[in-house]
Write a sequence for this structure.
């Protein structure tokens, strides 16, 4: 791994967009192998669990289908007076347990199938966490770094208007994801509120605290990854975070907060990466200096005192914990046999394909599945929704305590299912989630 030369990373037109609930400000590209379709992965995971559980075909068919799908094409006037047409999506997977919940993604590779997959994963995640939500996902095909702040606001407000017939505080509550942040959520909340003539803060989570957001929301997903990983390390290896080295792929909201949270709790964070590449120091990276470097240059690349490496190389480092916190489909059958971590903690949604899951298990690599590992974000989004509905707000300490309690209770339930059914953790987590959804379906029945 050669040390890379220094080069400034600047975004066109000075955009202020930074990612929120998803991979983060710089989203790591997949390894140099064919990336599986996220929707294909989600469907195959469901089929595998259905076979293990012996689900009837009609139940499986119901769970496979997304309930609502919206595609919108809308014009936005750019700063140079051109009119550009954008395409966006909003998908509701399942509403058996309540209104839907899921992020808004701004990325050039957003597709309807990706939104379907992410909405499905969110359904399982909410059910596993015991939240009264179904899963949703949305996005716009756009590179937000190419837009000025004014263009980004106009696009966001028009997209929010286009999907407004799908959203509402009792119907569907969006949140940040890859390429979006608290400011984008503020514009969406304001747009929805202006259409109705009064403020409705509960329509969106991930908002700034000044307009009804919750303390602790920004760090929630990454901090939750640290909480769950720490508990798994203690249970399975009898070790703490202070006893392991960590590599984190993706250094946006989830990845950066995961790295920071694990570092603060004693872990040696040896490697991190973003879309431009990665950096590695076997003795550990100074998180405070690294965050300052990213703020100044826009990338982790060329961080002083570290060697450069690719995203593919990061996945294969001999570390105790590997955190894929970028996009889906990163660990595949082509590279899974080269993963040398003891534990893979899925900070991203769907980073491991079914074939890779089997290879990792055969090689003794323990995988903490996404619907458990990164559930802290939606748990705190739920807390924000409750606070916005009640106009009664908690301090950050209360938010963190309640999040950790929820995550650890979910982990214990999954551990129990693993022991009882003698299966991998992903299978156990899915079984719990699906059983809870089926119970809701059976109680509600079918209309008419």
């Amino acid at each position: 791994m050669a040390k890379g030369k220094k080069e400034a990373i600047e975004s066109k037109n000075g955009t202020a967009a930074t990612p929120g609930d998803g991979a983060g400000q710089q989203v790591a590209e997949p390894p140099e192998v064919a990336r599986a379709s996220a929707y294909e992965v989600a469907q195959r995971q469901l089929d595998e669990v259905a076979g293990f559980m012996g689900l009837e075909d009609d139940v499986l068919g119901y769970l496979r289908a997304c309930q609502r799908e919206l595609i919108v094409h809308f014009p936005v006037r750019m700063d140079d007076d051109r009119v550009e047409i954008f395409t966006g999506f909003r998908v509701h997977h399942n509403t058996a347990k309540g209104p839907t919940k899921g992020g808004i993604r701004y990325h050039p590779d957003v597709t309807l199938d990706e939104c379907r997959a992410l909405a499905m994963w969110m359904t399982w995640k909410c059910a596993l966490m015991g939240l009264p939500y179904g899963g949703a996902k949305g996005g716009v095909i756009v590179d937000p770094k190419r837009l000025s702040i004014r263009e980004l606001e106009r696009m966001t407000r028009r997209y929010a208007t286009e999907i407004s017939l799908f959203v509402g505080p009792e119907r569907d509550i969006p949140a940040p994801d890859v390429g979006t942040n608290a400011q984008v959520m503020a514009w969406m909340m304001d747009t929805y509120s202006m259409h109705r003539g009064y403020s409705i803060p509960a329509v969106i989570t991930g908002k700034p605290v000044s307009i009804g957001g919750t303390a602790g929301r920004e760090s929630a997903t990454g901090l939750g990854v640290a909480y769950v990983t720490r508990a798994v390390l203690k249970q399975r290896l009898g070790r703490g975070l202070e006893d392991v080295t960590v590599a984190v792929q993706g250094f946006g909201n989830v990845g950066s907060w995961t790295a920071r949270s694990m570092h603060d709790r004693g872990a040696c964070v040896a490697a991190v990466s973003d879309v431009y590449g990665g950096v590695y120091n076997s003795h550990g990276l100074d998180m405070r200096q690294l965050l300052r470097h990213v703020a100044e240059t826009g990338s982790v690349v060329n961080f002083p005192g570290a060697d450069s490496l690719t995203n593919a190389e990061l996945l294969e480092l001999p570390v105790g914990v590997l955190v894929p916190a970028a996009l889906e489909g990163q660990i595949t059958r082509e590279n899974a046999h080269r993963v040398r971590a003891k534990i893979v903690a899925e900070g991203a949604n769907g980073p491991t394909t079914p074939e890779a899951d089997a290879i990792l298990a055969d090689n003794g690599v323990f995988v903490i599945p996404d619907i458990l590992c990164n559930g802290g974000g939606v748990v705190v989004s739920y807390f924000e929704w409750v606070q916005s509905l009640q106009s009664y707000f908690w301090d950050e300490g209360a938010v963190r305590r309640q999040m950790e309690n929820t995550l650890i209770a979910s982990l214990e339930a999954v551990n129990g299912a693993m022991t009882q059914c003698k299966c991998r953790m992903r299978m156990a987590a899915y079984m719990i989630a699906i059983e809870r959804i089926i119970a809701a379906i059976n109680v509600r029945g079918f209309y008419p």
